[in-house]
Amino acid sequence: MSNELIKNFIDYSMSNGKYTEQGDHEKVNASYRQIIKTIKDIYATDPSFSSLETLLDHKDKSVRLWSASVLLFTDKKEKARKILEDISKTKGLVSFSGEMTLKEWENGRLKPFYELDIREIEN
């Protein structure tokens, strides 16, 4: 597992959270695409996403959100669910994202991010 991939995941997640809170949808979408590409790259060498587990305790809420969202589809789903529940109890748009991610997952409407067709999110 490349440390560079994890660094990118952290950086893109933090950017996504920052732009989400600022309401800058263009930059949110750009960082989202980068996160998805990075998740796919991580999956190629670490399909269990064990490299993201330590990020569940990251100081940045958006990094925890994205890590937990990925880990919902692994054997760490209960810990990931708890993280998303905790995030959804805080204030801000990232918190709302956590709430909606958890709701969509619980209702079976959230797909694993590594399965997304990158061509569908390019535009």
Mean pLDDT: 94
- Unreliable stretches, pLDDT < 50, 5 or more residues? none
The largest sheet is: none
- Beta-strand proportion: under 5%
Q: What is the domain tally?
A: 1
How many H/I helical runs?
A: 6
Kindly state the number of beta strands.
0
Described by the principal axes of the CA atoms, the overall outline is globular
Radius of gyration: 13 Å
Order of helices and strands: HHHHHH
Please give the CATH class: Mainly Alpha
Fraction of residues in helix: 55-70%
Overall structural class, as computed from helix and strand content, comes to mainly alpha
Euclidean distance between termini CA atoms: 29 Å
CATH domain topology: Serine Threonine Protein Phosphatase 5, Tetratricopeptide repeat
CATH architecture tag:
Alpha Horseshoe
Give me some keywords for this one.
single chain, 123 residues, mainly alpha, Serine Threonine Protein Phosphatase 5, Tetratricopeptide repeat, 6 helices
Description:
With 123 residues, the chain is mostly helical. It has a single domain, classed as Serine Threonine Protein Phosphatase 5, Tetratricopeptide repeat. The protein is built from six helices and no strands. The protein has helices at 3-22, 25-45, 61-71, 77-88, 93-106, 118-121. Helix 4 (77-88) crosses helix 5. The radius of gyration is 13 Å and the shape is globular. The mean pLDDT is 94.
In short:
The chain has 123 residues and is mainly alpha-helical.
Give the secondary structure arrangement, pairings included.
Blueprint: H1 3-22, H2 25-45, H3 61-71, H4 77-88, H5 93-106, H6 118-121
Helix pairs in contact: 1-2, 1-3, 3-4, 3-5, 4-5
